[in-house]
Amino acid sequence: MAQSPEHDTKPCRHCGTPFTPASTDDAFCCSGCEYVYQLIHEEGLQRFYDFKGKSNLPPVRGKVFDEADFPWLKEAVAVAEQQALDDGRSTGLLQLKAHLDGVTCVGCVWLVERIASKVEGVAAPDLAPASGEITVRWEVGKSDALMQLAGELLRFGYRLTPLGERESRSRELRDLQIRAGMCGALALNGMAFTLPRYLGMPEDFMFAGVFDWIIVLSATLAFFSGGSYFIRRALVSLRARIIHMDVPIALGVTVAFLGSFVGWMTGHSGLFYFDFVSIFLFLMLGGRCIQLMAVNRQRADAEKQTLRPDAVRAAGSGERVESGDLVKGMRYEVDPGGVVPIASSVVDRDVTCSLEWITGESEAREWKVGAQLPAGAINLGRSVATFEAEEDWEGSMLERMGDGREGTPRNPILEKTLAIYVAVVMVIAIVGGVVWWARSGDPITSLQVFVSVLVVSCPCALGVSMPLADDLARMRAQSAGIFIRRENLWGRLKKVRAIWFDKTGTLTMELPSLVNPEAVKRLDDSGAYALAALTAGSVHPVARSLRDTLGVRGQKMRDAGARADAASVDDYPGLGVAWRDQSGRVWRLGRPSWAADEAPAGVDSVLACDGRVVEAFQLVDGARPQSVAAVDWMAGRGYQVGIVSGDRPEKVDHIGDSLGVAPQHRRAGFLPEEKAQLIKAEEAAGRPVLFVGDGANDALACDEATVSATVVSDRAALADRADFCVFGQGMAYLQTLWRIADVRGRAVMRAFVFAVVYNLAAISLCLMGLMHPLIAAIIMPVGSVLSLAIVAGSFRQLRR
Q1: The Putative metal-binding domain covers which part of the protein (predicted)?
Q2: Which of 403, 322, 299, 401 has the alpha carbon at shortest distance from 72?
């Protein structure tokens, strides 16, 4: 049997994400988590971990070492301040709604409140952990306090981002919660006044009529507030010729309400299902809320970036220009770390860029004045770079890649099953009603049989158990650092027969790994301070790798002054960076032949002081932990494993040989369209594909695959596009995900079998004329509870 890639992992002490420790003393998955853990204890906020409990957080990684720059926030705050000025307000509070990345639990809410309480001029924020939506408030004229809060939150691993389309999803969830709350209150109200009838209240009781009116009014309000949600969605699906779960729900609740209304008007208590209507709608809406909350939470956690780069500035005027407004011939400026949105030529001065965002390859390259860069290049320099657009945004590569698949993929098996289910139930109900009418000659009795069959056959058990199965699967996946974005992932995952990986960032780490990290640890305080200053704010892959290795020590030095000293660092495109300290010594970090008088051989970068080598660094594209075991495990299960990359053949062959990927399943030098064609051909050949990528050039391939995934880094280009996102550094997520899919599949099947047995027994009572509204009101919640217990019990085997 193939070796399990999970056996050598342990949870990170801060975020809980499983990782492979390099030694028994390692307690953190990354230097970012270590820094935040120490910061929390230094600030006396360790109760955060008590509130957090077993909830997992996304790994912090290197974002806490980034410079706190929020151009979108500055613009939004300026607009709010100007509006207050126009309104003549000089006191009071202004507010702004945003999204806070990294929030997952009530512990995060507690920590954010404590962080905000230490910033003068900022009021206590409102934070919803389910959606990550935050409302921040600050005193008029004290916008600097809000910027300070954003920086403090970033220090603890939380980044403020624009709300964007998340606002519409929050409104949808709030609408659903209001409907569920109303139906719950109306159900309790209806049950309170229905109970006397079930306990034998005489028909001539003086308040009997009043009770009936209250019951009818409660059910009517529940039907129009909650039932309309399912009816509207059922009509939409039927018009699209799709049988959705909402169709049998809408059918059952509509027949129950109309039949109850007929029974109330004619005085036949056997048709009195008003209490069923309210209870049923409350349970269904509650299950749907759980489902939508889970989907929103995972999308919010994963949406770090989209394929549309941030706005740039017009050269000369400095005015903000959205990427969608760029046209050929326009000159614009890109900040350090910014993305070149369209194919452009270099203006004024040479630049150092990487294609990490678009190809996943982090290697830095130098472009001379007049050279043309592809869209997606990242400005690695420490100063603003000027470019001239060589094309319009409309029709550009990134614009085409942004037009991804929309909506939720259909599930033909489920649609067919539901279609058969609805047809069978309708036939049974009609035949049962007709037979009873023929035998008894009583239309009311036959109507009672017809209504009772449709009422008890509503998929209530499945309606609450399937969302629970999805939520439990989501939580188990999250505990392993896997964030599910699309709720119908599990069925498609079971179809996969081939797994294709992009190379850099998926099979290898997103940044080059330091072969000799002890070189950083050997630095004395002056050397470490110089390295902290030289790498502060840089997006160069070598600088980011060294900064992460310097970790907590480097961050403390940046806080102590190295960040300010970084402003005097000089950038030499294609060579490195230099800085003169207060004693006049010149420190250099970069190419060995440039940084030092006598450079050692076989190293990639050196830190030198006045031409003398202080430390030399070796870097390599290291494979992710558990990658060999993961590939062995996948091959052992019969999956075809392949690598498709835009990188050079020798690099692809190197990683392919180390992981044991067959040469015929390696593709190098592939353009985005070629990657998509490969995946499309695999799908057409009957091999459904799981494609794992990380660069924007993988977007088209993601759209062609049955299942798509991305390993999220600090520059995740596919987080808003993939079916699931992985935040851990290892590859044990593959076996974990399949185990969860197997358990969820068994849980759903057991719940389905129970629902079939339950419905057969209930329908038999209906056809015998023995189903009473009281019995229906009892067996429905009992059946739902038993179904939930079956699902919960199935997931017990995944407990650690």
Answers
A1: 12-55
A2: 322
Residue 477 CB contacts under 8 Å (≥ 6 apart), including other chains = 483, 484, 724, 736, 737, 740
pLDDT band at residue 307 using 50, 70 and 90 as cut-offs: low
Residue type, 401: M
Residues 6+ apart with CB under 8 A from 417: none
Question: Which amino acid, one-letter code, is at 626?
Answer: Q
Contacts with 714 (C-beta within 8 Å, 6 or more apart), sequence order:
61, 62, 63, 66, 510, 544
Look at residue 136 in the predicted model and tell me its pLDDT.
92
Query: Under a CB-based contact definition with an 8 Å cutoff, are residues 645 and 670 in contact?
Result: yes
Tens digits of residue pLDDT in 455-467: 777 666 666 677 7
Residue 402 confidence (pLDDT) above 70: no
Q: How open is the CA angle 775-779-783, to the nearest 5 degrees?
A: 170
- Higher pLDDT residue, 49 or 132? 49
- Nearest Cα to 713, choosing from 624, 773, 583? 624
- Structural domains for the chain: 64-163 (3.30.70.100), 169-301+408-470+742-798 (no CATH), 312-401 (2.70.150.10), 481-511+623-731 (3.40.50.1000), 513-620 (3.40.1110.10)
Residues 2 and 636 sit within 8 Å (Cβ to Cβ): yes
Which range has highest mean pLDDT (15-29, 37-51, 364-378)? 37-51
Average confidence score pLDDT of the chain: 83
Side chain identity at residue 588, one-letter code = R
Contact present, 659 and 631 (Cβ < 8 Å): yes
Model confidence at 332: pLDDT above 60: yes
Structure tokens at 77: 């705050």
In degrees, rounded to 5, the angle at the alpha carbon of residue 357 between the alpha carbons of residues 354 and 362 is 45
Q: Report the run of H or E that residue 147 belongs to, with start and end.
A: helix 143-155
Name the 3-class secondary structure at 652: helix
C-alpha 542/C-alpha 589 separation (Å) is: 10
- A 10 A CB-CB count for 124 gives 12
The whole-angstrom separation of Cα 684 and Cα 474 is: 30
Over residues 254-305, the pLDDT tens digits come to: 888 888 888 788 777 667 778 778 887 887 788 777 767 766 655 555 444 4
Residues 6 or more apart whose Cβ sits within 8 Å of residue 175: none
Contact 147, 70 (CB under 8 A): yes
pTM for this model (two decimals): 0.69
Distance CA 355, CA 727 (A): 21
Which stretches of 117-262 are assigned E, i.e. beta strand?
A: 122-128, 133-139, 159-161
SS3 state at 321: strand
Report the C-alpha gap between 684 and 267 in whole angstroms. 61
Q: Which pLDDT value is given to residue 2?
A: 46
- Answer yes or no: are the C-beta atoms of 18 and 57 closer than 8 Å: no
pLDDT band at 1 (very low <50, low <70, confident <90, very high): very low
CA angle 456, 233, 167 (to 5 degrees): 125
In whole angstroms, give the CA distance from residue 301 to residue 297: 6
- Give the CA radius of gyration of the chain: 31
Q: Whose CA is closest to 643, among 623, 614, 615, 616?
A: 623
If you search the block for the tokens 């498609």, which residue do you land on? 492
Rounded to whole angstroms, the maximal C-alpha distance in the chain is 108
Q: Euclidean distance between the first and final Cα of the chain, in Å? A: 22
Measure the CA–CA gap between 677 and 687, rounded to whole angstroms.
14
Beta-carbon contacts of 776 under 8 Å, excluding residues fewer than 6 positions away, are 273, 276, 452, 455, 456, 762
Residues near 168 by beta carbon (within 8 Å), at least 6 away in sequence: none
In 3D, which of 342, 331, 439 has the Cα closest to residue 385? Answer: 331
Q: Closest Cα to residue 14, out of 475, 481, 521?
A: 481
Q: How many residues does the chain have?
A: 800
Q: Is 354 helix (H, G, I), strand (E, B) or coil?
A: strand
